[in-house]
Amino acid sequence: VIGYVAGFLMYFILLLYGSQVMMGVTEEKTSRIAEVVVSSVKPFQLMIGKIIGIGMVALTQFLIWIACIFIIYNVGKSSGNMGGAATGMVGTIQNVFTSVNLPIVVGYFIFYLLAGFFFYSSLYAAIGSAINEDMREAQSLSFPITMLIIFSIALMTPAIANPSSPVAVWASIIPFSSPIVMMARIPFGVPNTVPWWQLGLSMVLLVAGFMFTTWFAARIYRTGMLMYGKKPSWKEMIKWAFRK
Fold it and tell me: Which of 20, 47, 85, 177 would be a feasible disulfide site paired with 152, CB 3.0-4.6 Å?
């Protein structure tokens, strides 16, 4: 249950707030605010500021959810101590929480949330800087990134059915799918189901992944924010990234 909840929460947060980053960057570009701002700061700083700001909103919302869950858990625990075992939905939630190491799950969720958010939102920011006022451009350019997230949630189901299978192991290590799939595996136990080497390798590769995507997106961002009236393609955006 916690594996499904953690995976779907990660899925919705990455998709929702990643799209917000893209829309925010596009709004700054089309309103010409970015032209004024980049006269004082570098495009990379502007992009990172946008990502960090929205990322903190996502983290704050998650912490509010966690606070509410702990309140429900403690209320259920208190009612169980006073009047026997807790029953109904509260009792079910209490039983679910007591079956896992909740601090480990929450701690790793925060790491994968932030690292996964930086991985995907930097790419969404690069797309937002390349498009103009036509939202159809945003849909076509963001489709490959969105499909990576959807493919990751599709891998989560077999990972929960068999968290030690090769599909689950590799999907939890590869950076584009590790935020969702690894969070679906961690509630089954660390290091019993998820060995330390798999967890460490997954975290290192994800950090390296978002460092690369941030660098890659910043190269696109610096060109795309000041380019108007032209419909770009992924081929052209890659040329921007590797242009000296």
Answer: 177
pTM above 0.85, yes or no: no
Contact call for residues 226 and 134 (beta carbons, < 8 A): no
Burial class (CB in 10 A: 0-12, 13-18, 19+), 143: exposed
pLDDT tens string 2-48: 888 888 888 888 888 888 888 888 887 777 776 677 677 777 777 88
Query: Whats the size of the chain, residue-wise?
Result: 244
Q: Give me the sign of the Cα torsion angle 214, 118, 38, 222.
A: positive
Place of tokens 């995976």: 7
Task: Please check whether residue 130 is in contact with residue 232, taking contact to mean a CB–CB distance below 8 angstroms.
Answer: yes
Give the span between the Cα atoms of 196 and 129, in whole angstroms.
Answer: 39
Residue for token pair 């961690």: 186
Euclidean distance between CA atoms 218 and 198, whole angstroms: 30
State whether residue 100 is helix, strand or coil.
coil
8 Å CB contact between 35 and 86: no
80 neighbors 86 (Cβ within 8 angstroms): yes
